[in-house]
Amino acid sequence: MNDVSLPDALATLKFGSVAEQDPDSQRVRVRLPELGQLLTAWLPVLSRKTLKDKDYWLPDIGEQVAVLLDARGEDGVVLGAIYSEQDAVPVKSAEKWQRRFGDGAVLEYDRQQNQLTVSGGVKHVVVDTQADVLIKAASSVTIDGGQTVTVKAGSKVSIKAPATEISGTLTVQGAITGQGGLAVSGGGGATVSGSVEVSGDVKASGKSLVGHNHMGAHGPTSPPL
Fold this sequence. Notes:
mainly beta; six-stranded antiparallel beta sheet; three-stranded antiparallel beta sheet; Phage baseplate assembly protein V; Gp5/Vgr_OB; GpV/Gp45; Vgr_OB-fold_dom_sf
């Protein structure tokens, strides 16, 4: 077994605040109060993965971080940010995972309630993918658009359900094709502006348009031609 000589002083753990950022390389310089406000060299920020999968997260200026420095204090790595009295923890629950952003947006998962929540300052949610997207729920799916919900498709939109209910007015700008019949009740009935062409019979209050007769001077007339 080869002898390995170790330096007199090993790596040390220090705490400080981020003074400068280098977004291109995910490195920062840290001010260390314990060492007379010493400003470190550019130190990489520890990431979970950097090869095939990549994780990018840069501490903010002034953020409290833990730094591991070599024996001479010339090189090291930023292990991550830490909470303090000034920057208190936002959640006090061992059952929750949360990521809170500076604009107020919040991602949270509560494993006790089995609930994933996206809330706060999120103004736009974009899912841009070339794959199929499947939303599958055990009971119900609710979409609350506030003002407008727009669905766009290159060919068609299919709704497969035993019944479809629309509470409110329905405006169709294209043709309507029905294959299972049409029933209208309540309200003001049905109004059609324009021509109506029917291949079968039309009945009003039980009277057939095709087979009805009128009473003439000499008796009932023949059905309309």
